[in-house]
Records
---
Amino acid sequence: MPSDVDAHVSLFDRFAGAAAGAVAGAWFFAFCVVLVIVWLPSYFVFQKVDTWQLIINTLTTIVTFLLVALLQNSQTRADAAVQQKLNAIADALGDLMDELADDRPELRRDREELRAAVGLEERESS
């Protein structure tokens, strides 16, 4: 539950969050477009298609690989935060249903279904 959440965020997690925010902006897209525009005439500098393609393929592969790792870290942390919030809401709702179950017996089945659903993603994940 929320009291179990560790407030400490590692240096890598802070960096991944900042990188995710930076690459999600319009300026990063504009930078990529400018980079492609600058790269296109570089063909005349290298005069060999193989060298020209090798350079751009290598650079884009490296950047893509690093960005995927950073963005996956940010997405995983965001998913975990959302799940913790949902679990806290479900727990509070379950407690409320416990109090009302004496007056409304149909809530007992609903309460049991809710409690079974809490943590379901942990049990079903691979």
Note: The mean pLDDT is 80.
---
Amino acid sequence: MMPEQERPDPDSTDETSGEETAPERGESPTWSRAVIFGAAALAVLLVGATVGLLIGQSRTGDDEPPTPQAGSVAVGFSQDMSRHHLQAVTMANWAREHSADPEIVQLAFDIASVQQEQVGRMKGWLMLWGQPEEPLGEPMTWMAEPGGHGHGAGGTAVSDDGRMPGMASEEELAELRSLKGEELDVYFLKLMLRHHQGGVDMAQYAYDHSTVQAVRTLAKSMLASQGAEMNTMRGMLAERGSEPLPFP
């Protein structure tokens, strides 16, 4: 019978190779323990987040806010302000592509970027609420006081052709597209300043009356950002020797 071969000592060092043998079984390197613990913590967080989401989706208690319905401030604001914003995006994109003034180009880019993102948010809400992107009736009726019709808190009325306050007419948009140079820059500033002014009542009404916190937060953000832009545009018009259009 062959003699049993002597097993190597796992704690010994191979003197011939100069390499250390693996650590004892059950003793992981420090970095391995850190990775394992980090992964375990991440797994716990993911499980907790998933459970919380499932619980939130299944709750039907009285403390759950109801889904906004047609005619509500949340739905009306999202529908009307989206349409209002999209005209601003159209004007801003035209000015950005046709102006030679870097200051105008930057302002137009900022306005188009911010308002396009806000439109995406509002249209996303409407989809989640099961509401159409366009109002089924006349705009701004969600702002009407009892007995009133289609006007905001500041008394700014919808025009005969259905334009909300501050929105440019088709003739004004055509004139904007026909201009070049400083004439284009000045007319763009005038139209956009009036456009911003026209959206103030809607944003303020939504902030004051909506029961949906996300809508109130967005409306507050609009009031702050567009208020700053209005001051900027007034200054830019003055620098170019011009004045704002009458409003309302």
Note: Confidence is low (pLDDT under 50) at residues 1-61, 146-155.
